[in-house]
Amino acid sequence: MDSRGSRFKRNVLEERAAARLSDAGASSESGAAAVRAMMHASLVGVDSHGIRLTGHYCRMLEGGRLKRRPELDVERRGAGSAMVSGDDGLGHYAAYRAVEVGMEMAREAGIGAVGVRHSSHFGAAGAYALAGAEQGFVTFATTNTDSMVALFDGARKFHGTNPLTFAAPVPGSRPWLLDMATSSIPLNRVLLHRSLDEPLPPGTAATPEGNATTDPHAADMLLPLGGVDYGYKGAALAGVATLFSALLTGTTLDPDFIPMYGTADISTPRNMGHFILVIDPDKFAGRAAFAHAITHYLSSLRASPARPGGGPVMAPGDREWQVMAERERDGVPLDPDTIAFLGL
């Protein structure tokens, strides 16, 4: 036991989550994509977007918000551009397909830019950037979400948590991976802390009146990355996610979404948009030159001296791969609500 409950092996969680999604009517393909993305998040320590979301997705499938057996549609719009329709199914299914389409185009055109429409919540954006990087491509993934983050100096929810994610292949090693929300924390972390009855980090959330709070039960909205003093950076970056995911794809703007949580309407699709950009290093400096450069870059980065009492200096992804190794060995910790839903 630990502060987040018992630990469970990867295969047990995959089997239970897949069974629950199947019971809720998800097709085998869309269910498998959801489990793959949730398991990625749970293994790298992004528990807010991990296996704990199985219950939410099942409720949305049963309520009709998510189509149980979606049929994806791919429309090529140019040598390096395409649109994928998710048919209002699980967003993970459409997003992984967008990565595949992006890689197909990048092999020919050097880049593959893919917009996704008629989709839904797709979990941790890093799962899709990683999917491209593991096949040798530099990959960017983003999405916009429903309003839950105040603007800088704002007193009302405007942007979603709107992640920006990048990944790149590294010879003989796990990919370089940056997966960051443009809010100080994701909303699912607030919900996780409510379940665990643990305080939030300072400067990450606010009450309905706009006052900062560490009480997860009092939190009504999130603060942008940078908090009270430097939140203009996070608020602007959230707009970048909206630009790519909603404006370029013709989908829903952050303030216009049906909320993911806290609404009686779980039957109307949300028409979420995502954006995937895949780049083939071979069509730029060349794959060998890129491999040499990123190896040298990361070696130099990690060799940089740490401040007294700090360190070691880490590259994006280093912490995630350490957590993954530990959880592959010892199991994934789960909160009590998820343990109960999965019947563990």
UniProtKB/TrEMBL annotation:
GO terms for molecular function: oxidoreductase activity. Keywords: Oxidoreductase. It comes from the Bacteria. Pfam families: Ldh_2. PANTHER family: MALATE DEHYDROGENASE, OXIDOREDUCTASE-RELATED. Belongs to the LDH2/MDH2 oxidoreductase family. This is Oxidoreductase. It comes from Devosia chinhatensis. The lineage of its organism: Bacteria, Pseudomonadati, Pseudomonadota, Alphaproteobacteria, Hyphomicrobiales.
